[in-house]
Structures are given as structure tokens and as C-alpha cells.
Design a protein that fits this description.
By secondary structure, this protein is α/β, with parallel strands linked by helices. It has a single domain, classed as 3-Layer(aba) Sandwich (Rossmann fold), CATH 3.40.50.150. The protein contains ten helices and eight strands. Strands 3-2-1-4-5-8-6-7 form an eight-stranded mixed sheet, sandwiched between helices. The longest helix is centred in the N-terminal third of the chain and has 17 residues. The chain is globular, with a radius of gyration of 18 Å.
Length: 248
């Protein structure tokens, strides 16, 4: 469960379907999502924005620090109630609705870490194109999410997981211009990534320090430990997540 919620705000449970703030063991995934919201927030300053599948609400709240107005859309009743009570701004509104049928227009639309949960991704992107001039969509890279040699991860909530070329092709079927970015480890996480390649996991198991190390390391991760970059497709194979900026 989330820790230290404001009075009157019901905490949400970590189910694996969405990431949450205020759960120390989940901080890696939370920061990995948050850095993309920060990047988009800088690009939507002064615009009207829809945040589709807004979940706990932290991303919509962050977008609202820059955007003129944000509408956060999510169908889950617990997430909707939590978000509307926790994140209160004059330019932020939470709507409980299905993202496939919500029909309000805006300047920009954001839908992060959701397309992999959807059975008809083509229909969803066709719908998004009618709602905004620019659409930001992110999804995990199956090549780095799934265990080595596996076709997909073991996440039961995911319907389909994408490679870079497949995700680009999906977006290009509905938008004239698609720019694909990759999210990569930086700073402490890049050092940790290199250490794992050198056998750090075997070392900490033998020394019995893994639990103590990660109890300190994981909560200290921040958005500065990730970088979002436009890369050639061959380099996108190493990305953690893809972010497509779609227009036209």
C-alpha cells in the first residue's frame, strides 16, 4: 500500500497494473514513468492536455504545472477517487471514463505505458488522432523487459509487448509524422547496469548484502538516473521504453 497519504485520501494498493508513488520498493518504476511525464510537461506548456489512463494521478498533476489545463481520464473507480482527492489544482480535472470512448478535444494527448494493455491498439490510436494535434504514447521495449530468449514478459496485464520497429509501424498507420525516442539508464543506474554485466548480482549474493544494498539504492533513484534520446532503430533495441511523438 502507499505510505503517508494526506488525510482523507485512500491509499492505493500496488497490483502490478500501474505504478505508484510513495511505495519505496516501487521507486525505480515510478521514477522511470515520472521522467517521461517531466519531459512531456516541458513540451506542452500553455496547452490544453488530456492524460489518458491517468492512474494514480501523479502524471496529470505534473503536466498541470506547465499546461494551461489538464483532463485526466481513467476508468478505475479507486484510482479516480484517490486522484481527485489528492491532486487539486484549478487547471486539473479528473474524469472517470473509458479511454476508448472519451471524446473531448485538446491540443495534446498523453497516453503512457497503456497501449500494451489494449487489445485493439489500432482502434485506440485512430480515436486519439481525432482528439488532439499531437499525441504522446509510450510503451516498454519487449527486448529489455522480457527475460533473455523469451517472447514476452510475465506481466499478466500486458496484451502485447512491442519492438521498436513494430511500435513505430503501429503509430505510422495513424499519423503522418512519428518521432520515436528511447528511454535509457543514466548516472547511478548506468553504473549499476554495467556492474551487473560484470557479475555484481553474484557478488552481493555471496556476501549477503543484496537486501541491505537495494533497501538504500532503490529509494534513492531519481528521474536524473534516466535519459530520453532519439536514436537510430538499431540503438533503440537497448531502450527500456519507447516514447512516440505523433502528429499529422
Amino acid at each position: 500500500m502507499q505510505r503517508d497519504q494526506p488525510d482523507g485520501v485512500p491509499p492505493l494498493a500496488l497490483t502490478g497494473e500501474r505504478t505508484l508513488p510513495d511505495v519505496p520498493a516501487e521507486n525505480y518504476w515510478f521514477q522511470r514513468h515520472l521522467v517521461v511525464y517531466e519531459w512531456i510537461a516541458r513540451r506542452v506548456a500553455g496547452l490544453r492536455v488530456i492524460d489518458m489512463a491517468s492512474g494514480e494521478g501523479y502524471g496529470a498533476d505534473l503536466l498541470a504545472t506547465r499546461a494551461a489545463a489538464v483532463v485526466a481520464v481513467d476508468a478505475n473507480p479507486e484510482a479516480h477517487e484517490h486522484a481527485r482527492l489528492r491532486y487539486v489544482r484549478e487547471n486539473l480535472r479528473f474524469e472517470r471514463a473509458l479511454i476508448e470512448s472519451f471524446g473531448e478535444r485538446a491540443d495534446a494527448l498523453v497516453c503512457l505505458q497503456t497501449i500494451e494493455h489494449v487489445r485493439d491498439a489500432d482502434a485506440l490510436l485512430a480515436h486519439f488522432r481525432t482528439l488532439a494535434d499531437v499525441v504522446y504514447v509510450s510503451t516498454p521495449n519487449v527486448l529489455t523487459l522480457a527475460p533473455k530468449g523469451a517472447e514476452r514478459s510475465d506481466n499478466p496485464w500486458h496484451v502485447h509487448e512491442y519492438r521498436a520497429e513494430e511500435f513505430r509501424a503501429l503509430c505510422a498507420r495513424h499519423f503522418g509524422c512519428v518521432v520515436l525516442y528511447g528511454l535509457f539508464h543514466a548516472r547511478a543506474l548506468r553504473v549499476h547496469e554495467l556492474a551487473l554485466k560484470l557479475g555484481w548480482d553474484h557478488v552481493h549474493r555471496r556476501l549477503g548484502i543484496g537486501e541491505r544494498f537495494y533497501a538504500r539504492f532503490t529509494p534513492a533513484i531519481s528521474t536524473a538516473d534516466f535519459r530520453l534520446r532519439a536514436e537510430p532503430e538499431r540503438r533503440l533495441r537497448r531502450a527500456l521504453d519507447f516514447v512516440a511523438v505523433c502528429s499529422g
